[in-house]
Amino acid sequence: MYFPHTDSDREAMLAEIGLEKLEDLFKDVPAEHRFPKLDLPAALTEMEVLAELQDIAWSNDTTRELVCFLGAGAYDHYVPAVVDAILRRGEFYTAYTPYQPEISQGTLQAIFEYQSLIAGLTGMDVSNASHYDGATSVAEAVNMAFHNFRGKRSKVVLSPGLHPQYRATVRTYTRGSDVIIFGDDPHLDLTAGPESLLPFIDQSTCLVMVQYPDFFGRIYDYTALAEAVHRAGALLGVSVNPLALALLKPPGEFGADIVTGEGQPLGIPLSFGGPYLGIFATRNQYVRRMAGRLAGETVDNRGQRGYVLTLTAREQHIRREKATSNICTNQGLMALAATVYMSLLGKHGMRQVAELNYHKAHYAAEKISAIAGFRLWSPEPFFNEFVIECPLPAADLNEHLLENNILGGYPLGTDYLGMEKFSLLAVTEMNSKDDIDFLAETLTEVANG
Amino acid sequence: MNIPPELKYTKNDEWLKVDGNIGIIGISDYAQEQLSDIVYVEIIVSPGEMLSQGDTCATVESVKAAADVYSPVSGTVTAINDEDLPDTPELVNSDPYGQAWMLKVELSDLAELDELMDAGSYQKFCDEREQ
């Protein structure tokens, strides 16, 4: 047990400033606004607390008990035991960027390796030490693009195929600023490709943000879009699923200026929604506009390799009110998890996992779309996620599936008008052929009433 | 500390060289010394742009700090030093009054010049800060 102050410490401090009791410090706050009396139950023993918490935990259904076909931004992947074993080493087990960074060479090296891996995967010149998650990375991309043009271009075009929660986060971040958001009107035709964004792009656009594969799982070639964006003098941002990049052409090769992404598929457990990992990479010419920390490799005065935090003058603690972002932190531990995961699997292993996802998802899509009443929504290529039109509302379907211990897809009616009967299904290496066949059988039964 | 007598100075340590109706702007020897090794200079205005006195016209980044450069005068930007400074920002350390000039403006209000310090006053201003 840790006691920050003893009673005598408090008395000594109060005596020093000439007060009698602690409450005297708060007398300027009107009584009705002071913190209310805590009506807490009597203290429990450690044994009792553990039993109670265990009891609460058991009422959760997790992907250990259920067959999971839910994705929509967070995916059920296998996390090799080595990832956790390394994370939990005392030398690494802090989630925070060290404040005296240069003595933490191991942490800096891990961040440097992470940045190098992400730069390689995305085809970009430079990656920062990470942000909180995929959503906040997109919001930082908006921030960066807006400041890149010094506020002279205030239009941001968000694809309706960008994760709805990411778009909501951008709106939260930019509330009260001059940024104006276009492109994701709820009445737009969602079956249209990236060309539907072209009418929104003009000389006042600072950023066009798309997702790859998009929220509906579709893989588009954004080359023509990139050209149009650059013709207008704007930046192209691409939010990625990093695992898909083991198979797909990296965004750096089709003209992306900023690549963001949710790093959770890279060895990070679902954990009820976090902590996750915000990927953020860009081209060299924009490095000074990028938020977040940046580890660099250098040599010391004896010529030995060493690691430092570099380009720190961009950061908020130095730029103060002129900084373009208030983010100086990173998801250090999660970035380390992704680093261990990627290093462990290597280039070929990553591709193998990605291929497993691809093939299993395509097997599932074929199987499900063969069931009467179910139809694959889009003819576009996909990775490990696809949309199925169902004969009944997707939310109702999920209830039936849950009775059979299946966690169904994401009901798209949650975010998109008129899509109540559409379900976004994810299939990963965790789903066996039997799982997929069982899902298909169950869907057949449900459809037949 | 080098304070050329023919220039005008501001309390933000910019210098201004007046040549007819053109003003040339940079940062002083005192400023570069305070900032230490300059690693990045960015001129954030372009030729043709109108500046008011006090507007931010450049940012200078050193290994330990980042600072904005404010225009000592109002006027229209006629030239920026985008040839030397982006690639060799250390010129601000080695030649702050020469090769490290940052921009030229066509002065729109000559009365503003009277508000600036001459070399003697600026020397005194720097000395006071050193104490």
Description:
- The complex is a heterodimer of chains A (449) and B (131).
- Chain A has 2 domains: 67-78 and 347-448, Alpha-Beta Complex (Aspartate Aminotransferase, domain 1); 81-341, Aspartate Aminotransferase, domain 2 (3-Layer(aba) Sandwich), CATH 3.40.640.
- Chain A has 11 helices and 15 strands.
- Chain A has helices at residues 7-16, 46-58, 81-87, 105-122, 134-148, 164-174, 223-231, 316-319, 332-369, 394-403, 433-447, and strands at residues 67-68, 126-127, 155-158, 180-182, 205-212, 235-240, 258-262, 278-282, 295-299, 305-309, 375-376, 385-389, 406-407, 410-411, 422-426.
- In chain A, α3 (81-87) runs antiparallel to α9 and α4 (105-122) packs parallel to α9.
- Chain A is globular, with a radius of gyration of 25 Å.
- Chain B is built from 3 helices and 9 strands.
- In chain B, the strands form 2 sheets. In chain B, strands 1-2-3-9-8-5 form a 6-stranded antiparallel sheet. Chain B has a 3-stranded antiparallel sheet with strand order 4-6-7.
- The longest helix of chain B is centred in the last third of the chain and has 12 residues, at 119-130.
